[in-house]
Amino acid sequence: MKPYIIGITGGSGSGKTLFIKKIMEGFTNKEVCLISQDNYYKPRNQQPLDENGVCNFDRPESVDIAKFADDLHKLIEGKTIRIKEYTFNNPELDPQIIEFQPAPVFILEGIFIFYVEEISRLIDLKIFIDAREHIMLKRRIIRDKKERGYDLEDVLYRYEHHVMPSFNKYILPYKEHSDIIVNNNENFVKGIKIIKSHISSIHKK
Hints:
Elements (H helix, E strand, L loop, with lengths): L3 E7 L5 H9 L7 E5 L28 H12 L4 E4 L12 E4 L4 E5 L7 H4 L4 E6 L2 H15 L4 H20 L8 E4 L5 H16 L1
Parallel strand pairs: 1-5, 1-6, 2-5, 6-7
Antiparallel strand pairs: 3-4
């Protein structure tokens, strides 16, 4: 039987990573398989450049969509997948080999998963993580400095010229087509409880 697929998207800084981390607590990788689009970014030398020659990681062509979709289909067929972790070019991080195992429930996470039709049509439940723009920007500044080594000027440039144009074109239009919208301006405790309860009910069927 086809696994039950939950898709989670939202703007950069909306809190998708933490939301998913909280959902995964209490489930094993044999119960829930988490697949992040972030591990399918193309190498830096294959990234599209903006008019100032800056790599734009916020365009669909920055991701190896074909590989992402192919691995998803293989997992649905019951095959195990192994890929190298994508570390966003942070030299301080040593990429690990990530293993995806088939499970009754899949969680797909990424900014383009609703936009790409081949992936979107496989999703059974679509969740949109929402937050106000200034809150997303604040979270992005903190994350990119800590995890990716970007200075403030770089973060603000990318947010204005890459992140928000992409959000408005490839992410926000799919909010109204989502099954569940989770407000994360402060916290998402209620949303977590609902989704975890839903996953548990699937395993009981």
